[in-house]
Structure formats: C-alpha cells, structure tokens
C-alpha cells in the first residue's frame, strides 16, 4: 500500500472522536437511522467516513507491521549493546593486564637507569627484556612496532566502544519510551472501550504525560524499563 499519511490519520481520528461520542449517546433502538437522520442528531457522518476510509484494514496492518519492525529493531540494538559491552569488558581486562606489566617494566627500567639495583642489574635487565618480549608476543605486535602505541590504540578502541554504548543506550531508551506510551494508551483505550467510551485528545495527552512521568521517575531511581513493564 502507499505510504501512511500520519498527520492526516491523526486529524481524521481527532475529528471522529466527538462524532463517535455523539453516536454513542443515541438510544439503542436508533441504530437503523439513515445518514441524514444521524446528521440531524448532530453526528458528523463525514468525519466518521473519513476516519473509516483512512483507518481501513490495510492501514491497521501496515501500522502493526511497522510496530513489529520497530520491536525487532529494538531487539537488535539491545543485542548490539550486549555484544559491545562484552567487547569492552574484554578490552578492559586486557588493558589492565598490559598496563600492569608495562608499569612493572617501566619501574625496572627507571631503577636500572638510576643504578638502584646494584649487582643484580644484569639479571634484572634480562628479566625486563623477557617481560617486554612477552608483551610483544601476547599483543601480536609486528616487528618494529611500538608497545606503547599498541596500548594507546587499545585505549582509543575502548573509549570508542564506550561512546558507542552510550549512543545506543540513548536511542534504545527513547524508542522504549515511545513503545511504553503506545502500550499505555492502548491499555487505557481498551478499558474505556469496555465502558462504551472513547478517549478524547486531552485524555490521551494525560495518559502520555503520566507515562512519561512514570518513566522519568523510574530512570531517576535507577530502574531499567523494558517495554511496558
């Protein structure tokens, strides 16, 4: 089907709400009234027909498909977040180990330069060299490469990964807020429908504000919200 005109659909729905409310106020035995008779009762038939035309089965299916795609996208983003978090964790462990060894190597080098190791300087020099070559081998640094440059590169990758996680989490939380608002509106609409009543635009906005407040309060308390939970 053609692309959904969300603005037109919203405007049609807003116009149809008072018409539906007026229709529901009619006596139950007036369900066979003609369009002209309904108009005489103040029912905006044109608004109802416009909404019926725009919100047909194809539109509903398209909206459901779009929501399903959004949910799949959220799942893929969450999986990407988890993968990046695992990578960052591994990088942290590797970097901490390399930093520790480099610190020991640097301390021994400085001590050798200052002559503080006395007669043991030759054996310690060999030990320091062993540590250096062990690091080069573990890090798979090519011949002529710099161990310091490798560690700096590791730090840059770690910072980039952490930045990416923050970006993904920000986008994912925003999308989840939208999903939570949709679920809240649907739940409230279903409850009111059972009472033969439809939400007007003001009540819909109130539901959105309440859901956003609940979301912000939960985020401030450090609680992670998934969907409508």
How does this structure look, described?
- There is one protein chain.
- The protein has one domain (56-220).
- It is mostly helical and 229 residues long.
- It has helices at 6-24, 35-40, 45-54, 57-113, 121-138, 147-194, 201-220.
- The model is unreliable at 116-122 and 223-229 (pLDDT under 50).
- InterPro entries: Ead_Ea22.
- This is Ead/Ea22-like family protein.
- It comes from Escherichia coli.
Short characterization:
It comes from Escherichia coli. The protein is mainly alpha-helical.
Poorly predicted sequence stretches spanning 5 or more consecutive residues: 116-122, 223-229
* Major beta-sheet overview: none
Distance between the termini: 33 Å
User: Gyration radius, to the nearest Å?
Assistant: 33 Å
H/E element string?
A: HHHHHHH
Tally of structural domains: 1
Gross morphology: rod-shaped
The portion of residues assigned to helices is over 70%
Structural classification: mainly alpha
Percent of residues in beta strands?
Answer: under 5%
Which key terms come to mind for this protein?
single chain; 229 residues; mainly alpha; 78% helix; disordered C terminus
